[in-house]
Amino acid sequence: MRGDGDGWSISPGGVRHWGLFGAAGLLLRAPLGTGGSAVLLQHRALWSHQGGTWALPGGARDSDESAVHAAVREADEEAGIKAADIRVRAERITAAAPSGWTYTTVIADAGKPLPIFPNMESVELAWVPEAEVDQRRLHAGFADAWPGLRATFARMDPGECTAAEAAELAATLPRTVDLGAEFVWLHAEPGGPGERAVLLNPPYPPENPEPSGSPNPVGEAGDPGAGLGGVVPEDARILGIPRSAVLGSAG
């Protein structure tokens, strides 16, 4: 049953955007082998707006639903993705108009590439490796938003964590981590893609620690590798991930 959100929002000058109360779409990631990730993309039906391009499952929000609810509902309707099979990680407003219309991208993970069942709004659906998304002919709005949505790969060695944290990581990785300024696809696959990541426990080091005079001050205050017990190569860039962003607050 259709809700009350279908229709055009008209901005000054006559520019139209679909969704009387805004719109939302689901950016769903799933793990590939060796630490990679894939994104679920929809090849839009030719009769639709910018038909023939690739974008995210999504559509108009109803007046009584959140962006998350709308995105998950649309993914179910357009791709057969069930809410119980995914985990929402974040949401971002990725487009806005003078009329007040907004498009919200909801970021979520699945434990594996799920079976997909296109409806009449799709030519096809596909799980596309993250690095290959921008090789497709993308919907203009999604193409503009994609650079801020794509994830940086990072790998973590659970052996550098406490036993309790290693067990928690085994249960939650791989996954999308929202760091505010960027998204990270964090995995624990040895030899997998991305830079080395370490888990930061509070109190977190300052974002811009004062220079210490050493090119690689392992173990010094402000070093994300402090206390790990290993020697970090001088040319290695370490990505510090707050524990709370992955495992929640420390007990």
Automatic annotation (TrEMBL):
Its cofactor is Mg(2+). One of its GO terms (molecular function) is hydrolase activity. Keywords: Hydrolase. The keyword Hydrolase applies. It comes from the Bacteria. Residues 19-151 form the Nudix hydrolase domain. Residues 196-233 are annotated as: Disordered. This is 8-oxo-dGTP diphosphatase 3. CDD domains: NUDIX_Hydrolase. InterPro entries: NUDIX_hydrolase-like_dom_sf, NUDIX_hydrolase_CS, NUDIX_hydrolase_dom. It comes from Nocardia jinanensis. Residues 202-214 have a biased composition (Pro residues).
